[in-house]
Amino acid sequence: MRMRRKKHGAERIAACAEILISPPTEASDPQTYFAMPHSLHLEIGCGKGDFAVGMAAKYPENNWIAMERVSDVACLALEKAMNAKDSRPDNLRFLIGDAKNLTEWLIPHSVDCLYLNFSDPWPKKGYAKRRLTHQGFLELYRTVIKPGGMLKLKTDNESLFDFSLEQFAVCGLSVEWQTRDLHRSDKASDNIMTEYERNFSEKGQVIYSAWVRF
Ligand SMILES: C[S@@+](CC[C@H](N)C(=O)[O-])C[C@H]1O[C@@H](n2cnc3c(N)ncnc32)[C@H](O)[C@@H]1O
């Protein structure tokens, strides 16, 4: 997600400190960031935060961490959470950083469900390793996701979807559910849309989704 540099970005992020996790210096139990221990849901590449804020409100019985590597984008997500309509969610925290460092921040098997929403497709073959469903990333996820935990993927990009299915197979992961038209599937009514999802579906683009068991 490209974005013009935010004015006063550092000050605006500092104003959201109460819901921001500083990247830990060693792998930590994510439950320590929350008042109550609950199952832990992690979104990687949260963008402007629509999904994380919506899911944290819809499922208050879960703890949520939203990770974003671009600080100016994370700033908008943080402010969205701080200004949430009903109340500031106490079950949602943000982490500014890159997914490649996941195992340096989270202890093994601490995540119940990991979400990848509209991840950058990196269409050039030479950049395949940067795709967040490349086997290199899937092995990192395997370290932090609990055995029996889940990865949930949504994308508008058919090539990325097909590539992801191949990578799940390479890593011996079983796809429990998949669709090539999420909004006309049996999961449509529970779906919380992301910003990209809303933009793509308004243009008539179908949304692909898969749920993968670890
Ligand atoms: C195409 S945007 C989608 C944003 C949002 N998920 C949505 O659906 O509206 C992808 C986001 O993932 C972030 N991202 C990409 N690679 C990442 C990584 N390795 N770690 C953390 N965030 C990443 C980008 O900065 C960008 O904000």
Describe the structure.
With 214 residues, this protein is α/β, with parallel strands linked by helices. It has one domain (36-213): Vaccinia Virus protein VP39 (Rossmann fold, 3-Layer(aba) Sandwich). Helix content is 29%, strand content 23%. The protein is built from seven helices and eight strands. The chain has helices at 9-14, 50-58, 71-82, 102-105, 135-144, 158-170, 195-202; strands spanning 20-21, 39-44, 62-68, 92-96, 111-117, 145-155, 174-179, 208-213. Strands 1-4-3-2-5-6-8-7 form an eight-stranded mixed β-sheet, with helices on both faces. Strand 2, helix 2 (50-58) and strand 3 form a beta-alpha-beta unit. The radius of gyration is 16 Å and the shape is globular. The model has no long low-confidence stretch (mean pLDDT 95). S-adenosylmethionine binds at residues 1, 44-47, 67-70, 73, 98-100, 117-120, 194-197.
